[in-house]
């Protein structure tokens, strides 16, 4: 369904200065109609698609969609860009069908840019599968969220450095990531990261201590009850797990050697906090069960 809405006429910029390679852009907008959120705008360029939307939750109000990158992997010089807008009161949960694989760069960097704009009362749950950085990849990831009023964001990010199961470590290459959250024009979260395959932080005890999987689960919204955070801290994970309640953000961190372990920990946390964070019991996307 395609409707003209004020917000998607002014979708956030998805990318600038696209690199030589296989570029792709996906624009999505969601609006609340009655008790349901529905897609009201979809435009794609290049190999990025979104599958049919579902309303699998008992409330019937949350729109679930799966974003697909048909090539399955990102090569040097490729550039992916997402522009997402949620109208007032809209609630969308977006995920992906599998890992995003970033291949050896061969002298050309690759990038992904996510720009999302949430109007008052909107909720976005951005819960993709893991990102795998192959040895020799040169990857730049940019995530920018603009929240208005009481909009809420649940954001998950799991990154695998190399492929240890195949005997491959992230020994060469570059990982650059910049994540920012702005509420009503005020910066509330900024996390720049620059890590080379030769960086001592990969093995240092004050860095990744030799681990190959790092993850962040973040909720931007009202402060969660202290007893709920305490309950979350009792979760036993196959890796290191830490949780912090900041003034405007609740943040969980994972450090280990398994993407499955990271997802398991984060999805258990998501099930615990979702009723308080967005007012609904957790209903996992169907693709997580396949």
UniProtKB/TrEMBL annotation:
Its main location: cytoplasm. It comes from the Bacteria. InterPro entries: UreD. Keywords: Chaperone, Cytoplasm, Nickel insertion. It is found in: Cytoplasm. HAMAP family: UreD (MF_01384). Belongs to the UreD family. UreD, UreF and UreG form a complex that acts as a GTP-hydrolysis-dependent molecular chaperone, activating the urease apoprotein by helping to assemble the nickel containing metallocenter of UreC. The UreE protein probably delivers the nickel. Required for maturation of urease via the functional incorporation of the urease nickel metallocenter. This is Urease accessory protein UreD. It comes from Crenobacter oryzisoli. The lineage of its organism: Bacteria, Pseudomonadati, Pseudomonadota, Betaproteobacteria, Neisseriales. The gene is ureD.
């Amino acid at each position: 369904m395609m409707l003209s809405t004020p917000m998607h006429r002014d979708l956030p910029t998805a990318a600038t200065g696209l690199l030589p390679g296989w570029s792709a852009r996906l624009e999505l907008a969601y609006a609340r109609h009655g008790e349901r959120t529905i897609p009201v705008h979809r435009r794609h360029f290049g190999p990025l698609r979104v599958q049919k939307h579902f309303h699998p939750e008992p409330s019937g109000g949350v729109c679930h969609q799966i974003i697909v990158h048909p090539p399955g992997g990102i090569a040097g010089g490729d550039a992916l860009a997402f522009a997402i807008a949620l109208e007032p009161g809209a609630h969308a949960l977006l995920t992906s069908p599998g890992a995003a694989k970033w291949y050896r760069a061969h002298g050309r960097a690759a990038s992904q840019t996510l720009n999302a704009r949430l109007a008052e009362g909107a909720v976005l749950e951005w819960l993709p599968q893991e990102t795998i950085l192959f040895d020799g990849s040169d990857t730049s990831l940019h995530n920018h969220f603009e929240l208005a009023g009481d909009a809420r964001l649940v954001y998950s990010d799991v990154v695998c450095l190399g492929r240890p199961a195949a005997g491959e470590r992230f020994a060469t290459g570059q990982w650059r990531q910049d994540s920012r959250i702005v509420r009503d024009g005020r910066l509330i979260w900024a996390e720049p990261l620059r890590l080379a395959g030769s960086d001592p932080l990969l093995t240092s005890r004050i860095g990744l201590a030799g681990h190959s999987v790092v993850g962040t689960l973040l909720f931007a919204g009202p402060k969660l009850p202290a007893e709920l955070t305490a309950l979350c801290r009792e979760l036993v994970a196959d890796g290191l797990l830490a949780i912090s309640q900041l003034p405007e953000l609740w943040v969980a961190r994972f450090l280990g050697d398994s993407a499955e372990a990271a997802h398991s920990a984060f999805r258990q946390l998501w099930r615990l906090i979702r009723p308080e964070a967005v007012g609904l019991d957790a209903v996992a996307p169907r693709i997580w069960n396949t």
